């Protein structure tokens, strides 16, 4: 399943990068995230509760940032397993300054889903993935607006 999109943030590029890579901000913004534990500076173990069309479960997994170019880009590698299946994703995230002083955050990558949850169908899974990603970025933009207002 292809994942791609972008979101405008009202904060400068470095402030936006700091926000979207901050484990506390990620914990507050990610729907269903129950636990996020640092394993290293760029690697985390996570526990999420996710529900898709009546198939709900708790998933344990990992998030790792790779190919990091501070303030500009990184790859996010996500792996998760639960009672209903698994998910692997490899998503490139890049930041670009906008003329208004804000930052455009874009992402593009692939996600693979298997097990019972894959039986729900790619179209529905794609819709759920987009919903979760939008909720995540909208929550981060809300935090960024508070940062920009306080600056």
TrEMBL record:
Pfam families: COXG
InterPro entries, per the entry: CO_DH_gsu, START-like_dom_sf
Protein name per Swiss-Prot or TrEMBL: Carbon monoxide dehydrogenase subunit G
Organism: Alicyclobacillus mengziensis
């Amino acid at each position: 399943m292809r994942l791609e999109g972008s979101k405008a943030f009202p904060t400068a590029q470095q402030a936006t990068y700091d926000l979207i890579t901050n484990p506390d901000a990620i914990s507050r913004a990610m729907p269903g995230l129950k636990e996020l534990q640092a394993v290293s500076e760029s690697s985390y173990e996570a526990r999420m509760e996710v529900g898709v069309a009546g198939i709900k479960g708790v998933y344990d997994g990992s998030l790792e940032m790779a190919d990091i170019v501070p303030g500009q880009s990184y790859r996010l590698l996500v792996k998760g397993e639960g009672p209903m299946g698994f998910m692997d994703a490899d998503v490139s995230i890049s930041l670009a300054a906008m003329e208004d002083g804000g930052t455009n955050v874009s992402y593009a990558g692939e996600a693979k889903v298997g097990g019972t949850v894959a039986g729900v169908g790619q179209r529905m899974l794609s819709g759920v993935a987009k919903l979760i990603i939008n909720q995540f970025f909208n929550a981060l933009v809300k935090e960024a607006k508070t940062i920009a207002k306080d600056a």
